[in-house]
Structure formats: structure tokens, C-alpha cells
Amino acid sequence: MIEVITFDLWNTIFNNRFYTDFRLDYFTQFLEKKDIVYSIRDVKNAFNLAFYLPERNYEENDHIYTEDRIVKLLNILNINLTEPDKDLIKNKFEETILKDPPSLKIGVKQTLEELSSNYRLGLISNTGVTPGRIISRIFQEYEIFKYFDVKIYSDEIGYYKPHPILFKTALREFNCNPQNAIHIGDKLETDIKGAKDCNMLAIWFNESHSSNSVFINPDYEIHEIPEVLQIIENLNKF
């Protein structure tokens, strides 16, 4: 019997969107105001090294915080800034998303509304530069915050999926056995593996109809979020 349904965030609830250009523009303008001169190419290369390459190594699992990325960026460029300046950049980077939030996937709001009347819902999300506190603000703007009883963000836990602590923390907060919980996400290596390693059921949201090249086997596969409704209904018939 399914009691708890947890969702991934990016490319599951939100359409994925990148804000690199906005952050680069702000950072280059910040340097100009400080009379610190670098070519756009050098700044962009440093930014990519500091912000994106480590994030792809999920095997290490430790969450990489925005302030640590900024320190690495400044070290690469050999720039010394005051702590208040670093905090200002950090806040600007983290809040960039609020100016133009990513859109919801088709059918998400209606699916959440229907599921929430009979099940407890949770979010288990890796976060990058945008922390959980900012994502929760966007949830409130989209009027979907109310549907989630538990929200687990990697920046608040300290690890990235597929580390089991994220899934186990959600299960503990719900006081739910893993056999009574199901997770929905778009990444086999993080969402499906993480859920299955904790004995939860897992639904692969394969919107692009990609092939399973890593051979991590979900229990179910869907191509549109509303398909979750029929799966849950069928599971709870027995």
C-alpha cells in the first residue's frame, strides 16, 4: 500500500533552466565596479571550473555550497575580496532564479492537487547554486508549496542524491516504511538508484523517451507526470 509519494525537482516538477549568463553578467559588472579587469573569456572559464565540473561527480555525494564555489572562482582568478563582498555575490547568485523562475512541467499542479487529497507528498531534491530556501519561495509563488508535507534539499542535508541519507531522512520524517513509499524522478543515476537502494519503489520520468544506458532498473517508466496517478491507483488496488 502506497502512503508516501516523493518527487524530484529539476526536469520533474520544474523544467530545467540555466542561469549561468545572468550570474556571469552580474559578476563581471561587480569586478568592473571594483576596477578588477579580466577578459570575459577568462572569467567564463574560471566560472565553469568553479561551478559546474564538480557538480557532475555524484559518487562523492558531498553537497558543494555556493560560498565554496565562489571561493574557488576567486582563487582561480587570484582575486581577494572582503567577506561582505563574498556574501553579496553569494546572495545575488542564489536569488537570480527569482527574477524569472523556471516553468512547471505540464500537468504537475493538477497531479499534485489530486494526489495530495489521499497521500502524503514529499520533495527530495539536489540543489546547485539555488538553495532550498529559494526553491520553497518559488513553490509558494506557484501555489504548490502547500502540497508538500516534507521537503528534503541537498544543501540542507549536506549530501547529493543518490546518497541514502536524503531518502532515509524523508522516510523518517514521514514515519513511513520504504515499501510504502514511491519516488518519481528523471535521473536514473540519482533518483532511481537512490530510491531503489533504500528499498523504495521508483518511477522513472523519461519525458524524452531516452534509452536506459546505465541499466538501473526503475519499477515503472512514465513520459508525462499525470501518468503517476494511474500507477498509484493500480498499486493500491491490491
What is shown here, in short?
With 238 residues, the chain is an alpha/beta fold. The chain has 10 helices and 6 strands; from the N terminus they run βαααααβαβααβαββα.
Report on this model:
44% of the residues lie in helices and 11% in strands. It folds into two domains: 4-16 and 102-235, HAD superfamily/HAD-like (Rossmann fold, 3-Layer(aba) Sandwich); 20-99. The radius of gyration is 19 Å and the shape is elongated. It has helices at 20-33, 40-51, 66-77, 83-95, 108-116, 132-141, 154-157, 164-174, 188-197, 227-235; strands at 4-7, 120-125, 150-153, 181-185, 201-205, 220-222. It is of the alpha/beta class. Helix 2 (40-51) packs across helix 3 and helix 3 (66-77) crosses helix 4. The mean pLDDT is 95. Helix 6 links the parallel strand 2 and strand 3. Strands 3-2-1-4-5-6 form a six-stranded parallel sheet, sandwiched between helices.
Helices and strands, with pairings:
Elements: E1 4-7, H1 20-33, H2 40-51, H3 66-77, H4 83-95, H5 108-116, E2 120-125, H6 132-141, E3 150-153, H7 154-157, H8 164-174, E4 181-185, H9 188-197, E5 201-205, E6 220-222, H10 227-235
Parallel strand pairs: 1-2, 1-4, 2-3, 4-5, 5-6
